[in-house]
Amino acid sequence: MMALHQQQAVSEPTGGLMPSGPTYHRQVEARQRRGRIWAIIFQAALVSGVIALCALIFNIVNQSFGYVAIVNNIDPAELAVDGTPLNALPKEQLVEILEANVSAGLMRRYAHDVPFAERSREDIHGLILERVVEPQVQATWGLFDSVFARGSVMAEAEERFPGSDVYFRSWLTTSFISNSQSSEPLRAGVRTAILGSLWVVAITILFSFPIGVGAAIYLEEYAHRERPLNRLIQTNINNLAGVPSIIYGMLGLAIFVRVLEAFTSGAFLGVGDQSTANGRTIISAGMTLGLLILPLIIINGQEAIRAVPSSLRQAGFGLGATHWQVIWHHVLPSAMPGILTGTILAISRAIGETAPLVVVGASTFIALDPSGPFSKFTVLPIQIYQWTSRPQDEFRNLAAAAILVLLILLLTLNASAVLLRNQFNRRQANA
Amino acid sequence: MTIAIDRPSQLKTETNQPSPNGTGRFAIEAGAMHVYYGDFCAVRDVQLGVPANKITAIIGPSGCGKSTVLRCFNRMNDLIPGARIEGEVLFQGQNIYDDNVDPVEVRRRIGMVFQKPNPFPKTIYENVAWGTRINGFRGDMDEMVERALRSAALWDEVKDKLQQSALGLSGGQQQRLCIARAIAVEPEIILMDEPASALDPIATLRIEDLMKELSEKYTIIVVTHNMQQAARISDFTAFFSVDDRRTGVLIEFDDTEKIFTNPSQKSTEDYITGRFG
Amino acid sequence: MDRLNRELESTLCLLLPDGEQGVNMTQSAPVAHAAVSAESMQGPVAGVDGQADADAVGGGPKHDLRRKPRVGESFIQGFLFLCGAVSVLTTVGIVIVLGRETLLFFASEEVNLLKFFGGTEWQPAIGRFGIWPLVTATLMASLIAMAVALPVGLCIAIYLSEYAAQRTRSILKPILEVLAGVPTVVYGYFALTFMTPLLRGMLGRDLVEIYNTASAGIVIGILVIPLVSSMSDDALTAVPNSLRQASYGLGATRLETALRIVLPAALSGVAAAFIVAISRAIGETMIVAIAAGAGPNFTFSPFRAAETMTGHIVRISGGDLSYDSIDYNSIFAIGLLLFLLTLSLNILSQWIVRRFREEYE
Fold first, then answer.
1. Helix spans in A139-281 (H)
2. Range of the domain at B247
3. pLDDT of residue C251
4. Which option is the CATH number for A191-430: 1.20.1000.10, 1.20.120.350, 1.20.58.220, 1.10.3720.10?
């Protein structure tokens, strides 16, 4: 640098081509200014990404809580007996109230489903709310308005829905999680969908974990890379990871639902729902998602196995161990944290996956809990999709609450992946 | 007995030259052995008989294929993709590269200790027990572990923490654990690939003492880049060098004393006296 | 796990030579001196198992080193190979399924290749099967997505690799990963309930329809930002530091180094990231299914409702669909087109990475 300056100094009088002196300083300043501007632009890009994430979360939380305006068919206060409010009445009186307010035919149907003697007090109370009180959501407001523009919310509710109850409602409640699907937004819940998600994911894990890890072991430990067949397998896996998920749905529809219907409907075992016997079942969905995350598990497993130091393998071989003994006793235990972390990430992908399951044929409305791998199913993302697609605001609120459940589920899963990895590492170090 | 090889094709033989198909005279014997990595010839035409129950050192400049030759003796080179061996390696009269020979069997008879200590990420006890267990040992495991650790001069240091992780040991202890692990499966020959190069001088000394003790029961072949070490511990020394195509060749194999005092080859002398490599 | 472990072990032990044949170390006579004679190197004879080696002079081999059949090992290896083969079967399955239904689709009287690729109307009910409305909607959504994701993603990548301190990186990368881990249906909800009202508020309710490709496209863009930035960041950080130092040594500013030295050196990786992002945007389903509209519409306005290929597949297959109807077959034809499109993009990106990798290695 110094030499350069000197050279310039020498050559300047003769009209040197390199700028120097004040001209050069101005140029440097301009270049530095440009640098600073771009640095701000780069940072702005980053900030915009963070803003997008914040907007996403804000939007969902905003829709999950807030004021609702509700009009009741019969005011619960009117149903109070001797000054005892409805929700404190004993079961017998609740049955009487129900009997007095609904048709005899409906009562017979309820008794036919489950005799009143066997129903719980909460169940009867629920029936009264559903059939007698019949609350109707008139309008909902977001959390932001409810907190910062409470006055105008109240005024608007008063003006547009006179006589309505306006109260603050959290759409995400314990009953939201424990209730099954319902067409009444105030009573709808995600229990069926959560159970469906768990069933589907269980099948997915059972299907894809052994096969994925097996394939990873084969490719890393046994396969000769030069052989065309093995190269084909490797290239193929890399390409499968980029296939749109909906294509897997179509594969699942054509193979698991249609061709293997006898198997996936449970007909071969004589189980499953015979009335709707077709292959649109949990097991079809689970295997479809299994195929979908298989490339992810394989690629991740390969990386984990590749990271095992070869000195460990050599030590095993040097003692006269067979190849499988070395893999089973040394390579796999060392690679397991990596494999498990990758698997959990793949599973969280499977849990959030929607499109392939719509194609495979998730049920549009299902209030019965899944009873086994051959049941019809819905899953949490499908439930969100269906609620989002409905035009009424209150279903959007439900969708937002369900999204919160889904995100919490995924966050827990990812956190457990990290914890599991740390645990594993510590145990290995202490062992 | 002396085998001295000047050019690969010119086999100089002296009086006590063993029969070429050495059966039991040597613990292990390489005959006209070439090693290739792909197209590259790493080592050529090695003719070497290793006497039993002695320490044989392999020395030579770096890149001359010392480790490669060592790994040929228990087929560890099988694990390197593209590695290929020609010629034969006779172990008790059998060519271990015969098609019908199982490398797993070979490695159980011919153990190996590596350059860097590589204990399994398991307990100390498990490190020693594992090899014997997979090879079908059915005796008293505790006793066997103790015997192996005693043989490796490690017992007193670890007897109170057998259930702790082997990774908690010092480098020298780890390496002795690796030796204990190797002798636990009762091999005939122990191959050591620069076993002390990653250790400090005191740990090195302990390993060397241990090797001397072990040589009463085992045949030891040790690769070392440290000539003093070779002179200190070995009974025989093989000197390897590289030719102009970077291929390793065996220059001279003889009594260690003779190699270091009166080598028959000029290049050996140059290397020993530091004028080469 | 442990039990399985032990079982496996005992199975394997059966296949191994018996361990009782321990080696007696005192058999070999100690050798006194280097002058090794045939007599002193007594060949051990214990454990001869009748194998008569013609060359064996000093006694037969002590150990039988011959290969024994290891049924378990071969079985395991076979099983593992099958696991690897499942992935190939998946691809074969995809090709066969999509191919078969597509052939059936084109075999029907109502449609042929010319109508499929030449028509601008997709109305299965009246036998119009022109793919263009679906393709234009797909391309429009993807283009908008790329217009969002490429500049932002690349800027983030440059910031992360060239500007950010190690600590900032370690905070920011997980945030981007969270963004990447959010399910697409959530993004769909975001597009419909946040982006669309925002666009309508900014540009006017008359211009922007409730369902429109613009908001879907923007949100797809947000979705693929983490993909672009993390792949580009990998490519940029892979550029050796010596190049940066050379540039600084010539008096270049940080910006000049980043844009003129590092970025060109990492160009292949960045290009591969872009292509993967495009492929991802084309295949994205739930966002467009929720926010872009539910009816094929041949339009070039991003503010009008239009259905993409993926959106159409989801809508048709979500309803009650009878097998072997023309509707059923048609979605597979669309699926095949989608598959070929994304596959060729992915292969292109892999090719670019392979082809130009040596540049900075």
1. 143-148, 150-160, 174-178, 191-217, 228-240, 245-252, 261-264
2. 7-272
3. 82
4. 1.10.3720.10
Q: How far apart are CA C164 and CA A374, in angstroms?
A: 52
Indicate which of B94, B130, B144 best probes the interface with C, i.e. most C CBs within 10 Å of its own CB.
B94
Q: What is the DSSP letter of B198?
A: T
Report which DSSP code applies to C24.
Answer: -
Q: What CATH number did the domain enclosing B83 receive?
A: 3.40.50.300
Q: Is C160:C152 a contact under the CB 8 Å cutoff?
A: no
Q: What are phi and psi of B212, to 5 degrees?
A: -60, -45
* Per-residue model confidence (pLDDT) at position A229: 85
Query: What CATH number belongs to C122-356?
Result: 1.10.3720.10
What is the tens place of the pLDDT at every residue in A374-426? 888 889 999 999 999 888 888 889 999 999 999 999 988 888 887 877 776 66
Query: What would the two tokens of residue B86 be?
Result: 């020609």
User: For the segment B247-277, what is each residue's pLDDT rounded down to a tens digit?
Assistant: 999 999 999 999 998 888 888 888 888 765 4
Q: pLDDT, tens digit, for every residue of A186-234?
A: 888 888 899 999 999 999 999 999 999 999 999 999 888 778 888 888 8
Specify whether the CB–CB gap between C229 and C160 falls below 8 A.
Answer: yes
Q: How far apart are CA C346 and CA A395, in angstroms?
A: 38
Instruction: Please report the ipTM that was assigned to this predicted complex.
Output: 0.85
On the 0-12 / 13-18 / 19+ scale of CB atoms within 10 A, A38 is: buried
Using a CB-CB cut-off of 8 Å, the residues of chain C touching B94 are: 53, 61, 65
Helix residue ranges, H only, chain C:
2-15, 71-107, 113-118, 132-158, 166-181, 184-190, 196-203, 213-237, 241-249, 254-256, 263-265, 267-283, 286-291, 309-318, 326-356
CA separation (Å) from A425 to A336, B124, C91?
A: 10, 18, 36
Element (H, E) at B66: helix B66-72
Using CA atoms, how far apart are residues A386 and A397, in angstroms rounded to an integer?
Answer: 12
- The answer as to whether B137 is a domain residue is yes
- The predicted structure's pLDDT at residue C8: 42
> How confident is the model at residue A158, as a pLDDT?
81
> What gap in Å lies between CA A234 and CA C33, rounded to an integer?
57
Q: Are B148 and B158 in contact (CB under 8 A)?
A: no
Residue B181 is assigned to a structural domain of this protein: yes
Q: What residues contact residue B147 under an 8 Å CB cut-off, 6+ apart? A: none
Q: In degrees rounded to 5, what are phi and psi of residue B248?
A: -75, 140
**Predicted confidence band of residue A4 (pLDDT cuts 50, 70, 90):** very low
Q: Which residue of A has its CA nearest to C224?
A: A49
pTM of the complete model beyond 0.95: no
Mutate to test the interface with B, among C2, C18, C36 (most CBs of B within 10 A): C36
For Cα atoms B265, B266, B267, give the angle at the middle one, nearest 5 degrees: 95
Report the candidate in A324, A305, A307, A326 with the shortest Cα–Cα distance to residue A315. A326
Interchain CB distance below 8 Å, A250 and C85: no
Per-residue model confidence (pLDDT) at position A15: 55
**Residue A217 has which token pair?**
């072991």
User: Smallest CA–CA separation between B62 and chain A, in Å?
Assistant: 20
Q: For chain B, positions 158-217, list CB contacts with chain C under 8 A.
A: 186-188, 216-217
Q: How far is B50 from chain C (nearest CA, A)?
A: 10
Query: Does residue B122 lie within any of the structural domains?
Result: yes
> How many whole angstroms separate alpha carbon A26 and alpha carbon C216?
46
Q: What are the sequence ranges of the domains in chain C?
A: 2-57, 71-107, 122-356
Domain-by-domain residue ranges, chain A?
67-169, 191-430
DSSP C323: T
Q: For chain C, which residues score pLDDT lower than 70?
A: 1-63, 320, 357-361
CA of B200 vs chain C CAs: smallest distance (Å): 31
